[in-house]
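Whether sequence alone determines local backbone shape is best considered at the level of individual chains. We regard such an encoding as a compact summary of how the chain folds. The sequence in question and its structure tokens are set out directly beneath this paragraph.
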Amino acid sequence: MADLLVIAAYLPALWLGRVPQPLNLDGELNVGAWWASGKLLLGAALVLLAGRSRAPEGPVRSAFYLAFSFGLLFLSLDENLGIHEQITAWTQRSGAGLPLIAGRHGAWIAVYGATAVVLALIFLKDILAMLRTDAVSSAMVGFGLSAVIAGGVVVEIMGYYAFFQNPLMQVAIEEALELFGWSLLLAGLYRHFLRHAF
């Protein structure tokens, strides 16, 4: 429900053509970033607690829970600090050779994507075990991450190529998908925590 309120507060900007800073979802230090950051922080805590309360002989290693929790904590910080934008700015200044989309955007996508693939390979056994032991929660987390990627990567890349005639509409779609995705991920993590923590 709160996700809808965040998006609804932004929608009048589509008609006004300008957005007050706290409601401007295109960037950091706004209501949407704070809300998403809080959800990610809560998700990190749930994953950490679920890992600590799991059975020692369980099929999912505590290292997986720790890495997943750290990843969510990092993304929570990124929501407010714009770390991914800083990666792109650094790439442009330094000529580091990271791929840029449309000549000047999205260097962070290669960094975050490569990191996700490496971690998925390292923890593949744990991911498969989680799918077997808690399929519903895992599906919720997976669909949530898919929505986040659809908004934060696919729609953002479409924006780099000016696919949307109205940039404010692109931001609304991107952020709606991200907020919905983080909520679904959080619901899946909460369900997993309740099933395995007691």
Notes: Residues 35-196 form one domain. The chain has a mean pLDDT of 85. The two ends are 28 Å apart (CA to CA). DSSP finds nine helices and no strands in the chain.
